[in-house]
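TICKET: design request
STATUS: open
ATTACHED STRUCTURE:
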């Protein structure tokens, strides 16, 4: 597929004067494409080559989303784009930018998008629900992970882990992480979890600082339905950066999403090449 309608999504926090955004727009301007930008930026980035539309229409009208920012930006945009089966490519404005394909000095690589020299990687996502006394509340979808934690307080929390209604274990820990293969290189890895090739479809549960002699992560099949039940009040749920405060009897349910994130790769590198370049050698 040759992309014709491209959405550029700036990050005002990481690019406050839109210098990098404007450089990318200037690079794309001489291509035979339509460049779209959210109308909220029209006064700040006024360029006659751009088409300004609402953010919702941006995702509906464009066949490629280009995100400028760090991994958090990519997580947010990839999750939203997945609902419409739209691919995403990232320009790294962060420190590591593990999920961002292109560095600021590599804008010429965008030329591969117009010659068809790229691949689309499908990444598994998870859906997260909070089961309350009053019913089931959809909490959102995540490309990286769902984390149940003590909210930064210096206290251990008591959690029970269930898989398909069967109790697996009990944790007394700072929290627990349920990660996708993509999320295995994020918080889960920092907590001692395994690095998982994103071509593998599974769920990884990693305890955070468990007060136990048994602290191993556990890998579950992609079609498992996981539930975490807290015995402690004041517990929080974080879904790719979005926080929810849980009530004492709330149950967090995590399962594979019907949606997949579509990430564009133009470098033809393998997953472990990225691991080495951005994590092991950074």
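STATUS: resolved
RESOLUTION: sequence designed for all positions
ATTACHED SEQUENCE:
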């Amino acid at each position: 597929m040759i992309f014709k309608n491209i959405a550029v999504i700036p990050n005002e926090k990481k690019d406050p004067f839109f210098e990098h955004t404007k450089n990318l727009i200037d690079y794309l301007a001489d291509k035979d494409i339509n460049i779209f930008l959210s109308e909220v930026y029209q006064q700040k980035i006024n360029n006659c080559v751009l088409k300004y539309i609402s953010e919702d229409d941006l995702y509906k009208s464009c066949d490629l989303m280009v995100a400028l920012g760090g991994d958090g930006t990519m997580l947010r945009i990839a999750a939203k784009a997945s609902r419409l089966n739209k691919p995403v490519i990232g320009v790294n404005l962060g420190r590591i930018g593990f999920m961002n394909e292109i560095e600021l000095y590599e804008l010429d690589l965008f030329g591969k998008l117009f010659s068809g020299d790229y691949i689309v990687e499908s990444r598994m996502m998870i859906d997260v629900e909070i089961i309350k006394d009053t019913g089931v509340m959809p909490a959102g979808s995540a490309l990286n992970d769902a984390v149940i934690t003590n909210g930064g307080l210096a206290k251990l929390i008591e959690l029970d882990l269930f898989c398909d209604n069967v109790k697996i274990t009990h944790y007394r820990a700072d929290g627990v992480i349920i990660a996708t293969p993509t999320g295995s290189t994020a918080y889960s890895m920092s907590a001692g979890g395994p690095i998982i090739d994103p071509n593998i479809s599974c769920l990884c549960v990693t305890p955070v600082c468990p007060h136990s002699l048994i602290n191993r992560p556990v890998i579950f099949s992609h079609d498992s339905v996981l539930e975490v039940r807290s015995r402690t009040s004041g517990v929080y749920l974080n879904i790719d950066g979005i926080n929810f405060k849980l009530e004492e009897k709330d149950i967090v349910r995590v399962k594979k999403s019907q949606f997949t994130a579509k990430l564009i790769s133009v470098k033809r590198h393998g997953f472990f090449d990225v691991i080495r370049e951005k994590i092991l050698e950074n």
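CLOSING REMARK: The helical segments are 19-29, 55-61, 71-82, 111-115, 187-190, 271-280. The mean pLDDT is 92.
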